[in-house]
UniProtKB/TrEMBL annotation:
This is RNA methyltransferase. PANTHER family: NOP2 YEAST -RELATED NOL1/NOP2/FMU SUN DOMAIN-CONTAINING (PTHR22807), RIBOSOMAL RNA SMALL SUBUNIT METHYLTRANSFERASE B-RELATED (PTHR22807:SF53). Keywords: Methyltransferase, RNA-binding, S-adenosyl-L-methionine, Transferase. Residues 134-395 form the SAM-dependent MTase RsmB/NOP-type domain. Pfam families: Methyltr_RsmB-F (PF01189), RsmF-B_ferredox (PF22458). The keyword Metal-binding does not apply. InterPro entries: MeTrfase_RsmB-F_NOP2_cat, MeTrfase_RsmB-F_NOP2_dom, RCMT, RsmB-like_ferredoxin. It comes from Arthrospiribacter ruber. S-adenosyl-L-methionine binds at D248, D293. One of its GO terms (molecular function) is RNA methyltransferase activity. Belongs to the class I-like SAM-binding methyltransferase superfamily. RsmB/NOP family. GO terms for biological process: RNA methylation.
Length: 396
């Protein structure tokens, strides 16, 4: 594969922004691509993928790179990917054999898997033997998965429509609204996206709305709705009949939910900003179904957000765990007696998942609920993101 100086420069300066100015990888990539409008689709793909992969493998790259120079680090990454370096001044003192020899001497899992030591210890302590394979899987590149908007089309129709545009997809077993792209590409530009035929949503994430067993006409609350990914899926499952109240503490996310609802042809979503506990208390006993897609460490979605491992710390995980228990305790009574409450995270840590549900069920409010089932989705088993979904029934 041939390297071009301008795109490699783009990668190097993006890496500088991410690691030296502590910026988020997705934002930096977006800005880099926006400020280089002349780059073609291949250049854009190369820059985005190289930045994400360098972020993913950063600790390993640092361990084998001969210096702190960012061109050396890019070159090291390129060698580790099995490519040949061009004869550029920037790579003069970089010796592929030395990089490979250094690499072969590393045996520590945290370095080989390019994760912080604390994360490796936490993973092993909480997931035991399955951690080794889980972290290996979470370091692989994510597949691009679409959720078919069944309000506008069917999976088969969308598959054919995309095929006409040269976009090959396949339907994964067990996920009835999902289509996986055979080859990574920017799918936001396709006219079918602009027409609201699909959203980008991992297959594991698509299990969340499905677990609420919604029916047309129901009243549903999505209490941590964010930009509305699950709300939109719920609306499609409800055939756009009934009512969904999409709530969040961040108004700008709800603005996005509204925009996406319009594109999806969804009219049953109402958004409401959570301004305090009063907003929640007013909704006591009001919904047939409540979804709590709570804030979490995001360790189940490392494939698509590799910089999470560099931004997280044991302290931030402990903090988010306190918030998770507060949310389930404070929001649980919005569901009517006899209704269903779903607690979900995109984490693989039991401390954010089953331990939280067990703690809730053992508490005073938990006495009014029973666990119907829970689903611990490990990335190594699903082939998609790691997730946790617990379905609780409020006693009648
Ligand atoms: C995992 S994200 C939700 C993703 C969203 N459901 C989707 O499918 O796109 C968790 C959300 O919880 C919100 N949040 C944080 N604290 C909250 C609170 N106390 N009450 C409700 N939502 C909260 C965050 O702003 C964030 O949007």
């Amino acid at each position: 594969m041939k390297l071009f100086p301008n795109t490699v420069r783009g990668v190097v300066s993006a890496i500088d922004e991410i690691f030296n100015n502590n910026k988020y990888a997705d934002k930096v990539i977006e800005k880099t691509l926006r400020s280089n409008p002349k780059w073609g689709a291949r250049d854009r793909g190369f820059v985005a993928e190289s930045v994400y992969e360098m972020v993913r493998w950063w600790r390993l790259i640092e361990a084998v790179s001969p210096s702190k120079d960012l061109y050396h680090k890019f070159g090291t990454y390129w060698i580790l990917q099995g490519h040949k370096l061009p004869d550029w001044r920037e790579f003069k003192s970089l010796k592929p054999d030395e990089v490979k020899a250094k690499m072969s001497r590393i045996s520590q899992r945290a370095v080989l898997q390019s994760i912080p030591d604390w994360l490796d210890q936490m993973g092993e302590e909480l997931l035991g033997e399955s951690w080794d394979q889980e972290i290996d899987t979470l370091n692989q590149q994510a597949q691009v998965v679409l959720r078919v908007n069944t309000l506008k089309t069917t999976r088969e129709q969308l598959m054919n429509r995309l095929a006409e545009d040269g976009v090959e997809t396949y339907a994964p077993k067990g996920y009835k609204d999902a289509l996986v792209l055979a080859k990574r590409q920017n799918i936001f530009k396709n006219p079918a996206f602009k027409e609201g035929m699909y959203e980008i949503q991992d297959a594991s994430s698509q299990l969340v709305a499905a677990s609420l067993d919604v029916e047309p006409g129901m009243r549903v609350i999505d209490a941590c709705a964010g930009a509305g990914g699950k709300s939109l899926h719920l609306a499609a499952l409800m055939e756009n009949k009934g009512r969904i109240l999409s709530m969040d503490v961040e108004d700008w996310k709800l603005t996005n939910t509204k925009l996406r609802a319009r594109r999806n042809g969804v009219s049953i979503i109402e958004t409401r900003l959570i301004e305090g506990n009063k907003t929640i208390k007013r909704l006591k006993d009001s919904a047939d179904r409540v979804l709590l897609d709570v804030p979490c460490s995001g360790l189940g979605v490392l494939k698509r957000n590799p910089d999470t491992k560099w931004k997280l710390s044991p302290e931030t995980i402990a903090k988010v765990q306190v918030l998770q228990q507060e949310i389930i305790q404070d929001y649980c009574y919005m569901v009517k007696p006899g209704g269903i409450l779903v607690y979900a995270t995109c984490s693989i840590l039991p401390t954010e998942n089953q331990h939280q549900v067990e703690r809730f069920l053992a508490s005073e409010k938990g006495q009014d609920f029973e666990l119907m089932e829970d689903h611990k989705v490990l990335a190594q088993e699903s082939g998609f993101d790691g997730f946790y979904i617990a379905k609780l029934k409020r006693k009648g």
